[in-house]
């Protein structure tokens, strides 16, 4: 699962077997290539669009889009896994890990805990759970945000002098300054961080408004703009731009067997 919430688990950006060919867009369907670093070389991966309404996923009942919170999200994934392993029993003996990045990192431990509880209760299908994997997981906004200053120092975004000033004046609390000196230090920190792409600190600071989360247009949900502002080729977000075009193309939907969009 990936983050957002409501970011699609599309295979093109992280661990999946495919990636986009990064070339100037010429009006044709963006081309795909194999990812030489795909986890699928050593594992079987289920890339799950969740919660419902993400990517090509949908609910037959409009109410299905409304009851979406962290807990219900986790329970929906648990229901999916039980049905999937029931339909694919030859995978039940495989070592199984729940994985989530960014916001989905909050749900991975919850899902793993519920699978573990079902194993203890003897419920079927029995999933061979070995653990969970989280990448850059969201835990809580205050907890996560408070570590941005130490992280920025650790990767060389801010100087030793600024970091020492933050420690001295803010006393380990970098979210809500309690005095003017701490506020001044944090203001300098924010100005420096604004010059980089916080998600890709070694890349170019580019447009981040590319929404590729919801591809399937029902009358109940609003499809993201199919023609977002085009970033430059050296931006990481250029991949999102290509994905938006690719995923919303009728030939892609037909090849994947995606439900036809309603007018």
From TrEMBL:
Pfam families: Peptidase_S10 (PF00450). InterPro entries: AB_hydrolase_fold, Peptidase_S10. GO terms for molecular function: acyltransferase activity, transferring groups other than amino-acyl groups; serine-type carboxypeptidase activity. Gene3D superfamilies: alpha/beta hydrolase. GO terms for biological process: proteolysis; secondary metabolic process. PANTHER family: OS06G0520000 PROTEIN, SERINE PROTEASE FAMILY S10 SERINE CARBOXYPEPTIDASE. Belongs to the peptidase S10 family. This is Serine carboxypeptidase-like 18. It comes from Aegilops tauschii subsp. strangulata.
